[in-house]
Amino acid sequence: MIGGAAIAQVQNAVSPDEARAIAKDAFIYAYPMLFNYKTLYQQAVDPTSKSYVGGFGRFRNYSQPYGPENREIVTPNNDTPYSWAWLDLRREPWVLTVPEVPDNRYYVFQWVDLFTYNFAYIGSRTTGNGAGHYLLAGPDWKGETPRGIDQVLRPETDIVLALGRTALNGPGDVKNVQAVQKGYKLTPLSAFEHTAPPPAVPRPDFPKWDEAKATSIDFIAYLNFLLTFTQPPAPSETELLERFAKIGIAPGKPFNAAALPAGTRAAIEGGVADGKAALADAVNHTTSSFDIFGTREALKGDYMKRAVAAAMGIYGNTKEEAVYVGTRLDGDHQQLVGSQPYVIHFDKTDLPPAKFFWSMTMYDLPARHLVPNPISRYSIGDRTQGLKYNADGSLDIYVQHTSPGAAKEANWLPAPQGPYTVIMRIYGPGQAVFDGGWKFPEPKKG
Q1: Cβ neighbours for 128, distance < 8 A, ≥ 6 positions apart
Q2: How far, in Å, CA of 291 to CA of 308, rounded?
Protein backbone atom coordinates (compact mmCIF):
# COMPACT_ATOMS: atom_id res chain seq x y z
CA MET A 1 0.00 0.00 0.00
CA ILE A 2 1.08 3.59 -0.49
CA GLY A 3 2.70 4.93 2.66
CA GLY A 4 2.37 8.42 4.12
CA ALA A 5 5.48 9.74 2.38
CA ALA A 6 4.28 8.49 -0.98
CA ILE A 7 0.84 10.01 -0.40
CA ALA A 8 2.42 13.36 0.38
CA GLN A 9 4.58 13.05 -2.73
CA VAL A 10 1.53 12.45 -4.93
CA GLN A 11 -0.36 15.27 -3.20
CA ASN A 12 2.47 17.79 -3.45
CA ALA A 13 3.75 16.93 -6.91
CA VAL A 14 0.57 17.49 -8.84
CA SER A 15 -2.48 19.74 -8.72
CA PRO A 16 -5.98 18.25 -9.02
CA ASP A 17 -6.32 19.56 -12.59
CA GLU A 18 -3.00 18.05 -13.59
CA ALA A 19 -3.81 14.78 -11.81
CA ARG A 20 -7.06 14.56 -13.75
CA ALA A 21 -5.33 15.21 -17.08
CA ILE A 22 -2.64 12.64 -16.31
CA ALA A 23 -5.20 10.04 -15.26
CA LYS A 24 -7.13 10.51 -18.50
CA ASP A 25 -4.04 9.91 -20.61
CA ALA A 26 -2.84 7.06 -18.42
CA PHE A 27 -6.19 5.27 -18.62
CA ILE A 28 -6.17 5.47 -22.42
CA TYR A 29 -2.56 4.23 -22.40
CA ALA A 30 -3.45 1.36 -20.07
CA TYR A 31 -6.79 0.34 -21.59
CA PRO A 32 -5.49 -2.19 -24.17
CA MET A 33 -3.02 -3.59 -21.64
CA LEU A 34 -5.83 -4.11 -19.15
CA PHE A 35 -7.99 -6.10 -21.54
CA ASN A 36 -4.98 -7.99 -22.80
CA TYR A 37 -4.42 -8.93 -19.16
CA LYS A 38 -8.04 -10.04 -18.89
CA THR A 39 -7.41 -12.60 -21.63
CA LEU A 40 -4.05 -13.57 -20.13
CA TYR A 41 -5.57 -14.11 -16.69
CA GLN A 42 -8.49 -16.16 -17.97
CA GLN A 43 -6.42 -18.24 -20.37
CA ALA A 44 -3.13 -18.78 -18.56
CA VAL A 45 -3.68 -18.10 -14.85
CA ASP A 46 -7.23 -19.00 -13.76
CA PRO A 47 -7.87 -22.76 -14.09
CA THR A 48 -11.57 -22.24 -13.29
CA SER A 49 -12.06 -20.12 -16.41
CA LYS A 50 -13.76 -21.86 -19.33
CA SER A 51 -11.18 -20.31 -21.65
CA TYR A 52 -8.20 -21.64 -19.64
CA VAL A 53 -5.57 -23.02 -22.02
CA GLY A 54 -3.60 -24.95 -19.39
CA GLY A 55 -1.10 -22.34 -18.26
CA PHE A 56 1.91 -20.83 -20.01
CA GLY A 57 3.67 -22.63 -22.86
CA ARG A 58 0.66 -24.65 -24.01
CA PHE A 59 -1.60 -24.45 -27.01
CA ARG A 60 -5.35 -24.63 -26.85
CA ASN A 61 -6.66 -25.25 -30.33
CA TYR A 62 -10.20 -24.57 -31.42
CA SER A 63 -11.37 -26.32 -34.57
CA GLN A 64 -15.07 -25.53 -34.54
CA PRO A 65 -16.28 -22.16 -35.82
CA TYR A 66 -17.07 -19.57 -33.15
CA GLY A 67 -20.74 -19.14 -32.29
CA PRO A 68 -22.92 -16.85 -30.15
CA GLU A 69 -22.05 -18.92 -27.08
CA ASN A 70 -18.39 -17.84 -27.36
CA ARG A 71 -18.19 -14.52 -25.55
CA GLU A 72 -14.56 -14.44 -24.35
CA ILE A 73 -13.58 -11.65 -26.74
CA VAL A 74 -15.44 -9.02 -28.76
CA THR A 75 -15.83 -9.22 -32.55
CA PRO A 76 -14.48 -12.79 -32.88
CA ASN A 77 -14.14 -14.34 -36.31
CA ASN A 78 -15.33 -17.80 -37.30
CA ASP A 79 -13.38 -18.05 -40.57
CA THR A 80 -10.13 -19.13 -38.97
CA PRO A 81 -10.37 -21.12 -35.71
CA TYR A 82 -7.92 -19.95 -33.11
CA SER A 83 -4.86 -21.53 -31.52
CA TRP A 84 -4.06 -19.67 -28.29
CA ALA A 85 -0.86 -19.80 -26.24
CA TRP A 86 0.92 -17.54 -23.75
CA LEU A 87 4.68 -17.56 -23.22
CA ASP A 88 6.64 -16.35 -20.20
CA LEU A 89 10.08 -15.58 -21.63
CA ARG A 90 11.81 -14.61 -18.39
CA ARG A 91 13.42 -17.99 -17.79
CA GLU A 92 14.41 -18.86 -21.35
CA PRO A 93 13.25 -18.51 -24.94
CA TRP A 94 10.65 -20.77 -26.52
CA VAL A 95 10.50 -22.38 -29.94
CA LEU A 96 7.38 -22.48 -32.10
CA THR A 97 7.37 -25.37 -34.54
CA VAL A 98 4.92 -25.29 -37.44
CA PRO A 99 4.24 -28.16 -39.85
CA GLU A 100 4.10 -27.99 -43.61
CA VAL A 101 0.66 -26.58 -44.37
CA PRO A 102 -1.09 -27.35 -47.69
CA ASP A 103 -0.58 -24.53 -50.18
CA ASN A 104 -4.31 -23.93 -50.54
CA ARG A 105 -4.82 -23.38 -46.80
CA TYR A 106 -4.18 -20.02 -45.20
CA TYR A 107 -2.68 -19.91 -41.71
CA VAL A 108 -1.01 -17.29 -39.58
CA PHE A 109 0.56 -16.81 -36.16
CA GLN A 110 0.18 -13.29 -34.87
CA TRP A 111 2.53 -12.42 -32.00
CA VAL A 112 1.25 -9.82 -29.53
CA ASP A 113 3.16 -8.24 -26.64
CA LEU A 114 1.71 -6.90 -23.39
CA PHE A 115 1.15 -3.49 -24.97
CA THR A 116 -0.97 -5.25 -27.66
CA TYR A 117 1.51 -4.38 -30.40
CA ASN A 118 1.66 -6.99 -33.18
CA PHE A 119 5.42 -7.37 -33.11
CA ALA A 120 5.84 -10.33 -35.49
CA TYR A 121 4.08 -12.68 -37.91
CA ILE A 122 4.63 -16.25 -39.03
CA GLY A 123 2.41 -17.81 -41.68
CA SER A 124 1.27 -17.97 -45.28
CA ARG A 125 1.92 -14.30 -46.05
CA THR A 126 5.25 -13.76 -44.29
CA THR A 127 7.08 -17.10 -44.07
CA GLY A 128 5.10 -19.33 -46.43
CA ASN A 129 3.44 -22.66 -45.78
CA GLY A 130 6.58 -24.71 -45.26
CA ALA A 131 7.59 -26.32 -41.97
CA GLY A 132 9.80 -24.30 -39.65
CA HIS A 133 11.18 -23.53 -36.18
CA TYR A 134 10.92 -20.00 -34.79
CA LEU A 135 12.59 -18.76 -31.61
CA LEU A 136 10.81 -16.32 -29.28
CA ALA A 137 13.39 -14.62 -27.08
CA GLY A 138 12.70 -12.10 -24.33
CA PRO A 139 14.30 -8.66 -24.00
CA ASP A 140 17.08 -9.92 -21.69
CA TRP A 141 18.18 -12.96 -23.72
CA LYS A 142 21.70 -12.59 -25.14
CA GLY A 143 22.29 -16.02 -26.68
CA GLU A 144 23.27 -16.87 -30.24
CA THR A 145 20.77 -18.25 -32.74
CA PRO A 146 20.67 -22.02 -32.22
CA ARG A 147 21.10 -24.48 -35.05
CA GLY A 148 17.82 -25.42 -36.71
CA ILE A 149 16.10 -22.09 -36.00
CA ASP A 150 14.69 -20.34 -39.05
CA GLN A 151 14.11 -16.97 -37.45
CA VAL A 152 14.45 -15.22 -34.07
CA LEU A 153 11.61 -12.99 -32.92
CA ARG A 154 12.33 -10.39 -30.23
CA PRO A 155 9.43 -8.77 -28.35
CA GLU A 156 9.93 -5.92 -25.90
CA THR A 157 7.91 -7.58 -23.10
CA ASP A 158 8.58 -10.73 -21.09
CA ILE A 159 5.11 -12.16 -21.62
CA VAL A 160 3.64 -12.56 -25.11
CA LEU A 161 0.62 -14.06 -26.80
CA ALA A 162 0.75 -16.43 -29.78
CA LEU A 163 -2.56 -16.20 -31.62
CA GLY A 164 -2.79 -18.70 -34.45
CA ARG A 165 -5.50 -18.78 -37.09
CA THR A 166 -6.08 -21.67 -39.50
CA ALA A 167 -8.55 -21.28 -42.35
CA LEU A 168 -11.68 -23.42 -42.05
CA ASN A 169 -13.70 -24.12 -45.19
CA GLY A 170 -16.98 -25.01 -43.52
CA PRO A 171 -18.05 -27.65 -40.96
CA GLY A 172 -16.90 -30.51 -43.20
CA ASP A 173 -13.33 -29.22 -43.05
CA VAL A 174 -12.89 -29.49 -39.27
CA LYS A 175 -10.78 -32.69 -39.34
CA ASN A 176 -8.37 -31.14 -41.83
CA VAL A 177 -7.93 -28.09 -39.61
CA GLN A 178 -7.32 -30.35 -36.61
CA ALA A 179 -4.62 -32.20 -38.54
CA VAL A 180 -2.77 -28.94 -39.18
CA GLN A 181 -3.19 -27.74 -35.60
CA LYS A 182 -1.66 -30.94 -34.23
CA GLY A 183 1.59 -29.87 -35.86
CA TYR A 184 1.80 -26.61 -33.89
CA LYS A 185 4.29 -27.20 -31.07
CA LEU A 186 5.85 -25.05 -28.33
CA THR A 187 9.15 -26.14 -26.77
CA PRO A 188 11.45 -24.42 -24.25
CA LEU A 189 14.83 -23.74 -25.86
CA SER A 190 16.64 -26.06 -23.44
CA ALA A 191 14.35 -28.94 -24.41
CA PHE A 192 14.74 -28.10 -28.09
CA GLU A 193 18.53 -28.27 -27.73
CA HIS A 194 18.45 -31.18 -25.22
CA THR A 195 20.35 -29.20 -22.58
CA ALA A 196 19.73 -28.47 -18.91
CA PRO A 197 17.17 -25.71 -18.34
CA PRO A 198 18.22 -22.49 -16.62
CA PRO A 199 17.18 -21.84 -13.00
CA ALA A 200 13.49 -21.32 -12.40
CA VAL A 201 12.14 -17.78 -12.02
CA PRO A 202 9.62 -16.72 -9.35
CA ARG A 203 5.97 -17.03 -10.27
CA PRO A 204 4.36 -13.59 -10.42
CA ASP A 205 1.55 -12.79 -8.01
CA PHE A 206 -1.07 -12.26 -10.70
CA PRO A 207 -3.85 -9.96 -9.44
CA LYS A 208 -7.32 -11.44 -9.86
CA TRP A 209 -9.14 -9.96 -12.83
CA ASP A 210 -11.99 -7.73 -11.70
CA GLU A 211 -13.32 -5.69 -14.58
CA ALA A 212 -15.04 -3.14 -12.37
CA LYS A 213 -11.78 -2.46 -10.52
CA ALA A 214 -9.67 -2.54 -13.68
CA THR A 215 -11.79 0.20 -15.25
CA SER A 216 -11.84 2.40 -12.13
CA ILE A 217 -9.09 4.31 -10.33
CA ASP A 218 -7.67 0.87 -9.48
CA PHE A 219 -6.53 0.48 -13.07
CA ILE A 220 -3.29 1.92 -11.71
CA ALA A 221 -2.65 -1.19 -9.60
CA TYR A 222 -3.08 -3.44 -12.65
CA LEU A 223 -0.91 -1.19 -14.80
CA ASN A 224 1.86 -1.12 -12.20
CA PHE A 225 1.88 -4.91 -12.18
CA LEU A 226 2.02 -5.17 -15.97
CA LEU A 227 4.81 -2.63 -16.24
CA THR A 228 7.12 -5.00 -14.36
CA PHE A 229 7.22 -7.14 -17.53
CA THR A 230 8.07 -4.21 -19.79
CA GLN A 231 11.47 -3.24 -18.42
CA PRO A 232 13.43 -1.35 -19.49
CA PRO A 233 10.81 1.07 -20.82
CA ALA A 234 10.83 2.06 -24.46
CA PRO A 235 13.00 5.16 -24.92
CA SER A 236 10.04 6.98 -26.46
CA GLU A 237 8.07 6.53 -23.24
CA THR A 238 10.59 7.73 -20.67
CA GLU A 239 9.05 11.18 -20.28
CA LEU A 240 5.52 9.79 -20.47
CA LEU A 241 6.13 7.39 -17.59
CA GLU A 242 7.79 10.14 -15.57
CA ARG A 243 4.58 12.13 -15.97
CA PHE A 244 2.44 9.13 -15.03
CA ALA A 245 4.55 8.63 -11.91
CA LYS A 246 3.06 11.84 -10.49
CA ILE A 247 -0.17 9.92 -9.76
CA GLY A 248 1.48 6.75 -8.46
CA ILE A 249 2.16 4.82 -11.66
CA ALA A 250 5.46 2.92 -11.65
CA PRO A 251 6.54 -0.68 -12.30
CA GLY A 252 5.70 -2.89 -9.32
CA LYS A 253 4.62 0.02 -7.10
CA PRO A 254 1.75 -0.80 -4.70
CA PHE A 255 -1.33 1.36 -5.08
CA ASN A 256 -4.12 2.00 -2.60
CA ALA A 257 -6.71 4.49 -3.81
CA ALA A 258 -8.35 4.70 -0.37
CA ALA A 259 -5.12 6.05 1.12
CA LEU A 260 -4.93 8.98 -1.28
CA PRO A 261 -6.06 12.49 -0.26
CA ALA A 262 -9.72 12.95 -1.17
CA GLY A 263 -8.96 15.69 -3.70
CA THR A 264 -6.32 13.64 -5.49
CA ARG A 265 -8.54 10.58 -5.54
CA ALA A 266 -11.47 12.56 -6.95
CA ALA A 267 -9.23 14.10 -9.61
CA ILE A 268 -7.92 10.71 -10.74
CA GLU A 269 -11.43 9.27 -10.79
CA GLY A 270 -12.51 12.23 -12.92
CA GLY A 271 -9.62 11.56 -15.27
CA VAL A 272 -10.69 7.93 -15.66
CA ALA A 273 -14.20 9.10 -16.56
CA ASP A 274 -12.73 11.55 -19.07
CA GLY A 275 -10.66 8.76 -20.60
CA LYS A 276 -13.69 6.51 -20.97
CA ALA A 277 -15.69 9.28 -22.63
CA ALA A 278 -12.88 10.15 -25.04
CA LEU A 279 -12.43 6.49 -25.94
CA ALA A 280 -16.14 5.98 -26.55
CA ASP A 281 -16.18 9.00 -28.85
CA ALA A 282 -13.15 7.75 -30.77
CA VAL A 283 -14.72 4.31 -31.20
CA ASN A 284 -17.88 5.88 -32.61
CA HIS A 285 -15.83 7.68 -35.24
CA THR A 286 -13.70 4.70 -36.31
CA THR A 287 -14.91 2.61 -39.27
CA SER A 288 -11.70 0.95 -40.47
CA SER A 289 -8.83 -1.05 -39.00
CA PHE A 290 -6.26 0.37 -41.44
CA ASP A 291 -4.13 2.20 -38.90
CA ILE A 292 -5.16 0.94 -35.47
CA PHE A 293 -3.28 -2.38 -35.31
CA GLY A 294 0.43 -2.92 -35.79
CA THR A 295 3.88 -2.49 -34.34
CA ARG A 296 4.96 0.27 -31.98
CA GLU A 297 6.66 1.95 -34.93
CA ALA A 298 3.52 1.79 -37.07
CA LEU A 299 1.26 3.32 -34.40
CA LYS A 300 3.76 6.15 -33.79
CA GLY A 301 2.83 6.78 -30.18
CA ASP A 302 -0.90 7.17 -30.85
CA TYR A 303 -2.24 5.55 -27.69
CA MET A 304 -5.84 6.40 -28.51
CA LYS A 305 -5.62 4.31 -31.68
CA ARG A 306 -4.24 1.45 -29.63
CA ALA A 307 -7.12 1.77 -27.15
CA VAL A 308 -9.73 1.98 -29.92
CA ALA A 309 -8.31 -1.20 -31.43
CA ALA A 310 -8.70 -3.04 -28.12
CA ALA A 311 -12.22 -1.72 -27.60
CA MET A 312 -13.46 -2.54 -31.09
CA GLY A 313 -11.73 -5.90 -31.58
CA ILE A 314 -8.69 -6.72 -29.51
CA TYR A 315 -6.04 -8.78 -31.34
CA GLY A 316 -6.93 -7.50 -34.78
CA ASN A 317 -4.36 -8.09 -37.48
CA THR A 318 -1.90 -5.63 -38.94
CA LYS A 319 -3.33 -4.26 -42.20
CA GLU A 320 -0.86 -6.10 -44.44
CA GLU A 321 -2.18 -9.38 -43.01
CA ALA A 322 -5.87 -8.56 -42.92
CA VAL A 323 -8.02 -5.47 -43.12
CA TYR A 324 -11.26 -4.99 -41.23
CA VAL A 325 -13.79 -2.60 -42.70
CA GLY A 326 -17.49 -2.24 -42.23
CA THR A 327 -20.21 -0.06 -40.88
CA ARG A 328 -22.98 0.33 -38.34
CA LEU A 329 -24.72 2.98 -40.47
CA ASP A 330 -26.73 2.78 -43.68
CA GLY A 331 -26.53 5.09 -46.71
CA ASP A 332 -28.68 7.62 -44.87
CA HIS A 333 -26.26 7.60 -41.91
CA GLN A 334 -28.82 5.86 -39.72
CA GLN A 335 -28.01 3.00 -37.35
CA LEU A 336 -28.43 -0.44 -38.95
CA VAL A 337 -31.23 -2.46 -37.34
CA GLY A 338 -32.41 -5.96 -38.17
CA SER A 339 -36.05 -4.98 -38.51
CA GLN A 340 -35.09 -3.00 -41.66
CA PRO A 341 -33.92 -5.12 -44.65
CA TYR A 342 -30.72 -3.97 -46.37
CA VAL A 343 -28.78 -4.99 -49.48
CA ILE A 344 -25.00 -4.75 -49.73
CA HIS A 345 -24.15 -4.74 -53.44
CA PHE A 346 -20.77 -5.40 -55.06
CA ASP A 347 -20.23 -4.76 -58.75
CA LYS A 348 -18.19 -7.44 -60.51
CA THR A 349 -15.22 -5.07 -60.69
CA ASP A 350 -15.57 -4.07 -57.04
CA LEU A 351 -15.61 -7.43 -55.29
CA PRO A 352 -13.31 -7.34 -52.23
CA PRO A 353 -9.67 -7.66 -53.42
CA ALA A 354 -8.28 -10.52 -51.32
CA LYS A 355 -5.25 -12.71 -51.99
CA PHE A 356 -6.55 -15.36 -49.58
CA PHE A 357 -10.27 -14.82 -48.89
CA TRP A 358 -12.85 -12.37 -47.55
CA SER A 359 -15.88 -12.58 -45.28
CA MET A 360 -18.50 -10.35 -43.61
CA THR A 361 -19.48 -11.06 -40.02
CA MET A 362 -22.52 -9.85 -38.08
CA TYR A 363 -22.21 -8.52 -34.52
CA ASP A 364 -24.88 -7.17 -32.22
CA LEU A 365 -24.50 -3.82 -30.50
CA PRO A 366 -23.33 -2.76 -28.05
CA ALA A 367 -21.88 -6.16 -27.02
CA ARG A 368 -20.20 -6.93 -30.40
CA HIS A 369 -20.89 -10.67 -30.17
CA LEU A 370 -22.10 -13.12 -32.81
CA VAL A 371 -25.85 -13.24 -33.39
CA PRO A 372 -28.01 -16.38 -32.93
CA ASN A 373 -30.12 -17.14 -36.01
CA PRO A 374 -32.19 -20.00 -37.46
CA ILE A 375 -29.62 -21.02 -40.11
CA SER A 376 -26.58 -20.76 -37.78
CA ARG A 377 -24.81 -18.41 -40.20
CA TYR A 378 -22.68 -15.78 -38.51
CA SER A 379 -20.62 -14.67 -41.50
CA ILE A 380 -20.79 -14.80 -45.27
CA GLY A 381 -18.05 -14.55 -47.87
CA ASP A 382 -16.39 -15.88 -50.99
CA ARG A 383 -16.04 -19.35 -49.44
CA THR A 384 -19.70 -19.62 -48.39
CA GLN A 385 -21.17 -22.73 -50.01
CA GLY A 386 -24.00 -21.96 -52.41
CA LEU A 387 -23.32 -18.22 -52.61
CA LYS A 388 -25.10 -16.91 -55.72
CA TYR A 389 -23.63 -14.26 -58.00
CA ASN A 390 -25.78 -12.27 -60.39
CA ALA A 391 -25.68 -12.90 -64.15
CA ASP A 392 -23.34 -9.93 -64.66
CA GLY A 393 -20.92 -11.20 -62.00
CA SER A 394 -22.05 -8.77 -59.32
CA LEU A 395 -23.02 -9.89 -55.84
CA ASP A 396 -25.87 -8.96 -53.49
CA ILE A 397 -25.82 -9.76 -49.76
CA TYR A 398 -29.17 -9.54 -47.96
CA VAL A 399 -28.85 -8.32 -44.37
CA GLN A 400 -31.94 -8.50 -42.16
CA HIS A 401 -33.51 -10.25 -39.18
CA THR A 402 -35.99 -12.45 -41.06
CA SER A 403 -35.31 -14.61 -44.09
CA PRO A 404 -35.38 -12.75 -47.44
CA GLY A 405 -37.09 -15.80 -48.98
CA ALA A 406 -35.93 -19.11 -50.37
CA ALA A 407 -34.55 -17.64 -53.59
CA LYS A 408 -32.27 -15.23 -51.70
CA GLU A 409 -31.45 -17.20 -48.55
CA ALA A 410 -28.10 -18.43 -49.92
CA ASN A 411 -26.95 -14.80 -49.76
CA TRP A 412 -28.59 -13.95 -46.42
CA LEU A 413 -26.56 -12.62 -43.51
CA PRO A 414 -28.95 -12.85 -40.52
CA ALA A 415 -29.10 -9.85 -38.20
CA PRO A 416 -30.50 -9.33 -34.70
CA GLN A 417 -33.79 -7.50 -34.47
CA GLY A 418 -32.08 -4.48 -32.95
CA PRO A 419 -28.88 -2.55 -33.72
CA TYR A 420 -25.80 -4.21 -35.17
CA THR A 421 -22.55 -3.67 -37.02
CA VAL A 422 -21.17 -5.57 -40.01
CA ILE A 423 -17.42 -6.16 -40.22
CA MET A 424 -15.66 -7.36 -43.37
CA ARG A 425 -12.31 -9.13 -43.12
CA ILE A 426 -10.06 -9.14 -46.17
CA TYR A 427 -7.18 -11.61 -45.77
CA GLY A 428 -4.23 -10.62 -47.92
CA PRO A 429 -5.76 -7.29 -48.99
CA GLY A 430 -4.88 -5.90 -52.41
CA GLN A 431 -3.35 -2.49 -52.96
CA ALA A 432 -6.74 -1.03 -53.92
CA VAL A 433 -7.81 -1.45 -50.29
CA PHE A 434 -4.95 0.78 -49.11
CA ASP A 435 -4.98 3.46 -51.79
CA GLY A 436 -8.73 4.02 -51.71
CA GLY A 437 -9.50 2.41 -55.06
CA TRP A 438 -11.84 -0.02 -53.31
CA LYS A 439 -14.36 0.93 -50.66
CA PHE A 440 -16.87 -1.03 -48.62
CA PRO A 441 -20.30 -0.31 -50.16
CA GLU A 442 -23.00 1.41 -48.15
CA PRO A 443 -25.94 -0.82 -47.14
CA LYS A 444 -29.06 0.22 -49.04
CA LYS A 445 -32.54 -0.22 -47.68
CA GLY A 446 -34.21 -3.21 -49.33
Answers
A1: none
A2: 11
Q: According to the model, what pLDDT value does residue 75 have?
A: 87
User: pLDDT tens digit string along 287-322?
Assistant: 778 889 999 999 999 999 999 999 998 999 999 999
End-to-end CA gap in the chain: 60
Ranges of H-type helices in 52-119: none
- Cα–chain-centroid distance for residue 40? 12
Report the range out of 10-19, 237-246, 323-332 with the highest average pLDDT: 237-246
Summary mean pLDDT of the chain: 94
For 215-284, what is the HEC assignment?
Answer: CCCCHHHHHHHHHCCCCCCCHHHHHHHHHHHHHCCCCCCCCCHHHCCHHHHHHHHHHHHHHHHHHHHHHH
What is the CA 46 to chain-centroid distance, rounded?
Answer: 20
pLDDT in the model for residue 40: 98
Q: Which CATH superfamily is domain 321-445 in?
A: Domain of unknown function DUF1214, C-terminal domain (2.60.120.600)
Q: What angle do CA 122, 75, 398 make, to 5 degrees?
A: 110
Superfamily (CATH) of domain 47-193: Domain of unknown function DUF1254 (2.60.40.1610)
Cα 351 from chain centre = 26
Domains in the chain: boundaries: 47-193, 321-445
Q: What pLDDT digit, counting tens, does each position of 334-350 carry? A: 999 999 999 999 999 99
Give the full edge-to-edge strand order of the sheet including 82-88: 60-61, 82-88, 159-166, 107-112, 118-123
- 156-198 pLDDT per residue, tens: 999 999 999 999 988 889 999 999 999 999 999 999 999 999 9
